[in-house]
Amino acid sequence: MSGVRICLWLALMLPGVAHALCSVVSTVPVAFGTVSSISVRTTSQPGSTLNAGLSCTGSLLSLLASNDHFWATVTSTQSGLLGPTGDVIGYTIYANNSTSYPLTRGTAYDFARNGIIDALGLLNGTTPKTVPLYFGTTIGSNVAAGTYSETLSIFWNWNYCSGIGIGGICLGRDIASGTTTLTVNLTVANDCTITAPNIAFGSAPVVSAFVPVTGQTINLACTKGSAYTVGLSDGQNPVSAGGRRRMVSGGNYLAYDIFKSAGTTRWGSVGAARRASSDAEVNPGNGLGTGSQVFNYNAKVYTDQTTPPAGTYLDNVVLDVGF
């Protein structure tokens, strides 16, 4: 008796199983750079880090489901960037590069539920990717110069489907957590806003008829706590260094000068000829940041010179502030 034996080879085609693994890694510090005190007070300064401590690699076959989560909880022993004199610069942390997704300190923020993980493509491909964070300082911080810093603690915990099978069935979940630290730094530089009106002597037929300009002021609002000096250059046409200033019209000159307060001491640009912040007539002392310090001066045309030909005489004097 003979028979026929038939062998069947069966092939079962299964969709690929994707696995993504996440871990907590060392962060890249946030550096706002060096910013003037005026800019810190008047304009929100941006900062960011491309690595806030969560790194993932792998591939998902679909977008994250409603039961997938990536939480970050940010805490600190400070309330913002702390400076050398105890001043604090406040700032907000954002989950993307706009102001649409602010994080609240001490409250878990779910990057998955806000679509940010999907937008980042964090789980696509085989190259590890990290979660960025974005920062913006709070307007209105009137602070002294110096380096401001804060160390944030970031607790990451996640729970998501790391493997998908036939029909989209989840074959496994990646559930883990970890804590990392993130340093934030900003350096505040000394700066001033200066209000210095032009000096106008008017017109006169002879030098002896020019009336001295009195009651003039220069207003400075300089960095909080800064000690500084204010200098006035000798202009573009001085007789010699530290000598008389001169206005010019064509090839002709008209000598004049600027004096401290209401007196006869020349206001210059070097050494004792400068004026210290402690010498201000209004609010003497170190800078106030938001308040002005006022320096009085007077100016006159020298009457011991020969009257030059008629014309419009001009000069430019540079005001400089030294810290």
From TrEMBL:
Keywords: Signal. The keyword Amino-acid biosynthesis does not apply. Pfam families: SCPU (PF05229). Residues 18-153, 179-318 form the Spore coat protein U/FanG domain. Residues 1-20 form the signal peptide. This is Spore coat U domain-containing protein. It comes from the Bacteria. The keyword Cell cycle does not apply. InterPro entries: Spore_coat_component, Spore_coat_U/FanG. It comes from Pseudomonas ekonensis.
